[in-house]
Amino acid sequence: MSLNLFPTLRTIVRKEFQLAYRDRIMSTLAVIVYTLFVVSGLLTVFQYQQDQQSREFSNAKFRDQFKAQHTNPHDAAHFGTVLFKPLNLISAFDPGLNDYFGTTYRVEAHVQHEVDYSNAESNDALMRFGSFTLAMIMQLLIPLLLLFISSSSLTFEKESGTFKMLMAQGLKPVQLVWGKVFANYLFVILLVLPIFTVVLLFLFFVPSGTALIGRFLIIVAGYLLFYLLLTLTGVLVSVLSRRSATAIMVILSLWLLSCVLLPKIATGMADKRYPLMSRAAFKDHIRAGFLKGINGDPPYQERAENYLNALLKKYKAAIASQLPVNADGLILQYNEDYQNKVFDHYYAELEYTFNQQQSFLNNAGLLNPFISLKRLSMAMSGTDFFHHQNFFMQAKKYRNGLIRELNLELANHPQKGQQAYIASPEFFRQLKDFQYDFPSLSKVAGMQKTGIISICCWVLLLSLSLHFVSKSSLF
User: Interior CA angle at 293 toward 292 and 294, to 5°?
Assistant: First the structure.
């Protein structure tokens, strides 16, 4: 663009805003959008506070119950505890998959649980339509509004006859087109920027919120880049259309296809192309693998006998009661280690399939930038599949370590006669609580580079297409 183009663009942008103000378009749309934002924000804050208080109360309750025990360590392992997936303020902005993948992890001896108890299980409306959140408005309603406005920007000039008048005054088509782009894009920026600013201020003042500012800034950049893409799309359709009705039909079809149908189709194709074994089949594999052995290992009874014989040989004892340790505790931990081995063996197959599905969806984002935006928003909010998997792996590691400590505490106290060892509350109080380590921003951003590149490439492609078309088709 030449330097003398910018004064012309400023004039066009000013004219567009004057028309919008005179026709009350901007004020009407702003009232509607901000009403939705306020309702959604209040619901989001209420739900976030309710969930956070529920987690804090439940965490404290389970922790106090567990640490107040005066019982056998293995009985405590069966009693177990519950770990809760942590929340953050950005996860309230975009709940992502949290409502569908579960929020709690049960710690229990002999059983490797999965993250369970999702909100969608008991909420049919949530399962069908999703939750009414700020992210939903940003991803679906704002794009639809922007596409409608931008798609009629040039057709309005053609239908009203002002296009020929503007051309007669020496205005070039490319100047008019880019003026419309900048005017519509500036309009949507002014519309959503206050919302982003409010969330950003919350991050500054809530505890540990400053650690999330980098993530949220990437979210803001992603949405603003996506809105630029939509503006270019709408104006391009307006350039190629003769009537506003035609442009609106095309835009509505594009919105339904890219924002509603294609994401569901892509998810269905990923599931069909890389099918997962059922939960029942997975549990059956673990049960059979533990009892029969995997990779040529002997079955359960033979493994236990071999391990006991190895203990007797190591300590030069004839029977288990002569051992300087509690054989029950060591055998329990040996079986626990083998069950963890079996679980990891079969879960590796599931994890590989999960990764294939996620890779497929990443590639689908190259064709549909809306998928890339949605995945980027969930990733930076900590509510995508990677963060769910990360919580599960950390919870499982904590569970394995806790059960090991309990079994080894039992093993270090040989049984005296018929009296079982009872651990004191001091032992349970010194056990460490679960601490979730949030993945680093660089790691999460690196995993979303395909989506970021996809949106940037689409913006560049549409910019070049619009610039080329505006020099030819409008004459």
Answer: 130
Rg (CA), the chain: 30
Residue 216 near residue 203, CB atoms below 8 Å = yes
Q: What is the pTM of this model?
A: 0.88
Full 3-state SS string of the chain: CCCCHHHHHHHHHHHHHHHHHHCCHHHHHHHHHHHHHHHHHHHHHHHHHHHHHHHHHHHHHHHHHHHCCCCCHHHHHHHCEEEECCCCHHHHHCCCCHHHHCCEEEEECCEECCCECCHHHHCHHHHHHCCCCHHHHHHHHHHHHHHHHHHCHHHHHHHHCHHHHHHHCCCCHHHHHHHHHHHHHHHHHHHHHHHHHHHHHHHHHCCCHHHHHHHHHHHHHHHHHHHHHHHHHHHHHHHHCCCHHHHHHHHHHHHHHHHHHHHHHHHHHHHHHCCCCCHHHHHHHHHHHHHHCCCCCCCHHHHHHHHHHHHHHHHCCCCHHHCCCCHHHHHHHHHHHHHHHHHHHHHHHHHHHHHHHHHHHHHHHHHCHHHHHHHHHHHHHCCCHHHHHHHHHHHHHHHHHHHHHHHHHHHCCCCECCECCCCCHHHHHCCCCCCCCCCCHHHHHHHCHHHHHHHHHHHHHHHHHHHHHHCCCCC
Give tens-digit pLDDT for 103-144.
889 999 888 888 877 665 555 544 454 577 889 999 999 999
Residues 331-359: pLDDT tens digits? 999 999 999 999 999 999 999 999 999 99
For residue 404, the model assigns a pLDDT of 93
Structural tokens at position 224: 């603003």
Which tokens go with 394?
């950390």
For 82, phi then psi, to 5°, come to -130, 135
